[in-house]
From TrEMBL:
<feature type="transmembrane region" description="Helical">
    <location>
        <begin position="59"/>
        <end position="82"/>
    </location>
</feature>
<feature type="transmembrane region" description="Helical">
    <location>
        <begin position="94"/>
        <end position="113"/>
    </location>
</feature>
<feature type="transmembrane region" description="Helical">
    <location>
        <begin position="20"/>
        <end position="39"/>
    </location>
</feature>
<protein>
    <submittedName>
        <fullName>DUF4383 domain-containing protein</fullName>
    </submittedName>
</protein>
<keyword id="KW-0472">Membrane</keyword>
<keyword id="KW-0812">Transmembrane</keyword>
<keyword id="KW-1133">Transmembrane helix</keyword>
<feature type="transmembrane region" description="Helical">
    <location>
        <begin position="128"/>
        <end position="145"/>
    </location>
</feature>
<dbReference type="Pfam" id="PF14325">
    <property type="entry name" value="DUF4383"/>
</dbReference>
Amino acid sequence: MAASADRSGTGRAGKTWPELLALAFGAIYLLIGIIGFFITGFENFFGNEATPDVHHEDASLLGFMINPMHNVVHILIGAAGLALGRTLAGARTYGWLLAVGYGAAFVYGLIAVGEEWDFLNLNAADNVLHIVTAIIGLVIALGPVRDAVDSHRRA
């Protein structure tokens, strides 16, 4: 019997739930980043609702304010999830990156929303999404996964 063939807490293809969650979040954020560029284009890269210009209209995706820089961040977060979600250790690392990065984005958003220097063009909905994503990152990083050895000992 292969030790990795029957891990408790695994999904398809022998993936653990943290790996699957990291891959899912990576795919979602990558898709959101790509779709975002169809809405914002590439002009006014750091634009926000507090500093409108003649070429900029407030851009939002499902109620979340975005700009091209915000789209780049989503694409990078998505690509990291797809790359790191392939192993449990990578998924755990991705979870920590989400927890720390989005925790910091939440704090930044509390201060920056509506300010001229808000280079990510955040709003209150973004802040809620950021704290939820940070919490999910902690779940990915710290959630328990039993391996095959544990499940055979208990059986």
